[in-house]
Amino acid sequence: MSRSKPKQVTGEQKEQLEDSFSGGFVPTDDPIKQQIKIHQFPWTDKQKDFFKVALHPSTRITFVNGPAGTAKTLLAVYCGLQLLNMKAASDIVYLRSAVESSESKLGFLPGSADEKLRFYNLPFLDKLDELLAGNKVAKLQEEGRVNMFPVNFARGLHWPSKIIILDEAQNSSYKELTTVLTRMGKHSRCFILADPMQTDLRHGGGAFQQMYNLFHNDEDSITHGVQTFKFDEDDIMRSELVKFLVKKLKDIPHNM
Predict the structure, then answer these.
(1) Is residue 168 situated within a structural domain?
(2) Within a domain: 4
(3) How many domains is the chain partitioned into structurally?
(4) Does residue 16 fall inside a structural domain?
(5) Could you tell me the residue range of the domain that residue 86 belongs to?
(6) Considering 102, 152, 218, 229, which has the largest number of Cβ atoms within 10 A of its Cβ?
């Protein structure tokens, strides 16, 4: 979304938004002690439709497909924070594939593991800063309520009662996507976010799109809590320029 100051949603709009979050969640064994105050934005009708799907008690996995500027990461982080408030999860795990968004490699980066991965985690921290006030982000990190690491480190882990956000999934291989999905424990929920137009994989990124198509509008998948959601160029909120550029560039082969 654009960088405009968040506005508090009031009245009927707020009541409708809160209604879509209510009821049906199994409380986690390790809930947050105090509710988090989350900034509200003037959500669009399409974004409110997303909340209804992603925050429905029966939804466990949501594949989110959309171009740059459609607020995919912001919406997923917002849902994660709401689920923390509803005590439906204990913490949020943010993942990305360690793939450089350039054909010119940077080589080995100096510093500790945290310092090396800082730039991969910036989108998540940026969205937390947009949604939370004051020093709440640092407090959540101190309490272990938000965790960030490359998807490469996920194999062998078990995630019960967690919110898993895999960002930039167009850069994830089939094995990486499968690893993330099969880490989900009891009561966990997962958001797989991707813009297929922006893959940085050498031979193009088709694994996400194949999985999205596999689960899209599939009744058996929906019964098991697997949903898909599609944003398009008309949903771009970043700027009118980005909306124009994405529409203009979408027909160029992505693996050029």
Answers:
(1) yes
(2) no
(3) 1
(4) no
(5) 43-99+110-249
(6) 229
Please say if the pLDDT value at position 220 is more than 80. yes
SS3 state of residue 173:
coil
Cα–Cα distance measured from residue 83 to residue 79, given in angstroms and rounded to the nearest whole number: 6
Query: Over 50: is that where the pLDDT of 13 sits?
Result: no
Beta bridge partner(s), residue 228: 63
What are the tens digits of pLDDT across the range 74-126? 999 999 999 999 999 999 999 988 655 444 444 455 555 555 566 778 889 99
Q: What is the CATH number of the domain that holds 48?
A: 3.40.50.300
Q: What is the pTM of this model?
A: 0.85
Answer yes or no: is 10 within a domain.
no
Q: What is the pLDDT of residues 153-208, one digit of tens each?
A: 788 888 899 999 999 999 888 999 999 999 999 999 999 999 988 876 666 558 99
